Amino acid sequence: MREKVGKKMSKSMGDLPHALANQGELEQEFSGKEPAVFLDYDGTLTPIVDRPEDATISDAMREAVRELAGRCPVCVVSGRDRKVVQELMGLDELIVAGSHGFDIWSPEGGNIRLGVGEGSEELLEEVKARLESGTESIQGSLVEPKKTSVAIHYRLVSEDERPEIERLVNGLLEEYPDDLKVTPGKMVYEIQPKIDWDKGKAVLYLLEALELDREDVVPIYLGDDVTDEDAFGALAGRGVGIFVGHADDPEVAGRETAADYVLNTMQEVERFLGTLAR
After folding, report:
1. Which of the residues 40, 224, 225, 230 is marked catalytic?
2. CATH code for position 266
3. 3: pLDDT strictly greater than 80
4. Do 101 and 184 fall within a single domain?
5. pLDDT digits (tens, 9 = 90+) for 122-151
6. Domain of 46?
7. pTM for this structure?
């Protein structure tokens, strides 16, 4: 059994045990308990793609999630807008936390009002306009407005123009130091209101709001991005964090993690969810 310490443990990606190869250990974690499963979308249920609109979930993965949701609580926690995630998933039985947990919806209660991030609409509109204007001549850049943030994607931007994207983002942070923060991801900067809220706090909030913060429930979080580390850390000592990806991926190489296990591919995620459902 892994050591329960009740705080964030930082470890090397390459040292994580494989979740499928260590099923016996995981079964001990779940023994006599109900799983509550939290899933990132991009990079976890679908591969990372050049354009966000192309990240479509496979029929097999959708069916694996549907089957699991019929047996235990399942929530998708994504940086995408909540309504976009719901459209992409095409499933009505899921709890969905969009915009890094700012916008939460459940099939039983509908939209869960948090009061977090409200009143920032005008500022985010200004951020969107400034980014669009500043990247107008940068080929491959993509400004994605969301309900409670604005994302600037630069995966398709040439190496020599990427510093200009960073300069634009830093300029906004310097201009609004008390109002804005940035969350870096895989070839994307997410500019958000400067509020103490993240995926980890969203998961803890959901566990309490859905009455899953109990001794007979084990929360499990699967994610691949740096934003998912907040959730891994929040569940350290009380649940299971599973990183999705390869330790030798250049985008994560050298990164420390608070996750407990690893799954390397979408196919392994699908197998793991199927195992949980059974």
Report:
1. 40
2. 3.40.50.1000
3. no
4. no
5. 999 999 999 999 999 999 999 998 878 899
6. 11-114+197-277
7. 0.79
